[in-house]
Amino acid sequence: MLCTSKAGKAIEIAPQAHHWKVLPGADFGDSFRIRLKPALASQEIGELAASMMKNKAPWIDALLNLRNLLVRPFGLKRAKLGIGSPAAAEAGKNEGGLPGFPVLAQDQHSLLMGLDDQHLDFRVCIEKSRDDAGPDHEQWLTVTTLVRTRRLFGKAYLATIMPFHRRIVGNMLERMSR
């Protein structure tokens, strides 16, 4: 899919067919992508994902802390934007005592993270791709989020966080690209 955007600006695109296969029955999916500058285009997918998670705006951490406080009574797992191991997530511990998103699969061009909870399951696909049809064979980083709700509370939670989710993902991509 040919996509044009100003350098450093994240754009929303439709998730591709292969994304929906990573979480069958998903109720929601979105994708954001950004054109990579040459310095970032040479990095491996794990480095790009870690950089995106690490270089987030302080307001994102503040929102996550508020989220963790508000959902505690409802039994949702605490969240931390970061990359964690499946074992650390199961133990409920990682950097700062919070689980990051466990890596479920990784290859040279993509990283799949996710977590299953009693209210909803989610997957985050981070993919690096080349647009051979575009000028200069541009490279792109795409972040696709998929969510499958399990209960009414999961649907309500998803509806509540969605406006924040869109701003957070776009902001994280743009900050990483600066």
Brief characterization of the structure:
The protein has helices spanning 17-20, 38-41, 45-54, 58-71, 86-91, 152-177, and strands spanning 11-13, 28-35, 83-84, 101-106, 110-116, 120-130, 139-149. It has 178 residues and is α+β, with helices and mostly antiparallel strands. A hairpin with a 3-residue loop joins strand 4 (101-106) and strand 5 (110-116).
Keywords:
178 residues, alpha+beta, GMP Synthetase, Chain A, domain 3, 7-stranded mixed sheet, 6 helices, globular
Shape: globular
Q: Number of helical segments?
A: 6
The helix/strand class is: alpha+beta
Tell me the major beta sheet.
Answer: 7 strands, mixed
Average pLDDT metric? 84
- Reading off the top of the CATH hierarchy, the class of the domain at 11-56 and 108-177 is best stated as Alpha Beta
Low-pLDDT ranges: 86-99
SSE pattern, N- to C-terminal? EHEHHHEHEEEEH
Q: What is the CATH-assigned architecture of the domain at 11-56 and 108-177?
A: 2-Layer Sandwich
CATH topology of the domain at 11-56 and 108-177: GMP Synthetase, Chain A, domain 3
Q: Report the portion of residues in β strands.
A: 25-35%
* Rounded radius of gyration (Å): 16 Å
Largest beta sheet: strand ordering: 1-2-7-6-5-4-3
Question: How far from one another are the termini?
Answer: 24 Å
Oligomer: single chain
What percent of residues adopt helix (DSSP H or I)? 25-40%
By DSSP, the count of extended strands is: 7
What does this structure look like?
The chain is of the alpha+beta class. The chain has a domain at 11-56 and 108-177: 2-Layer Sandwich (GMP Synthetase, Chain A, domain 3). Helices cover 36% and strands 27% of the residues. The chain has helices spanning 17-20, 38-41, 45-54, 58-71, 86-91, 152-177; strands at residues 11-13, 28-35, 83-84, 101-106, 110-116, 120-130, 139-149. The chain has a seven-stranded mixed β-sheet. The chain is globular and about 50 Å long. It starts with 10 loop residues before the first strand and ends with a helix.
